[in-house]
Amino acid sequence: MNVYDFDGTIYNGDTNKDLIKFAFKKYPKLVWQSLRNAKKLKKEYKHNLVEFERVKEEMLSFIFKINNYPQFINEFVDAH
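^ that's the sequence the OP posted. Answer follows.
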C-alpha cells in the first residue's frame, strides 16, 4: 500500500503526526511499540546505517497491526 503525504497542499497539517495522535487514542500499545522501534532506528539513521524512509516506515508500522486497518484509515480521513 502506498500512502502519499500531501501536507500543506490538500491536507492542512502534518499527516504523520495527526495520524499517530489519532491512533494513539485507540491503539496506544501498538503506537508506543512502533515509536520505540523507530527511535532505535533513528540512532542508526544518524550513523548513516539506514535510510530515513526506514525510520518513517517503522514509525507508521502500527497501522498494519490494526485488525481492520482500512476502516481505521477511513475513520482518520473522516475525522480530518
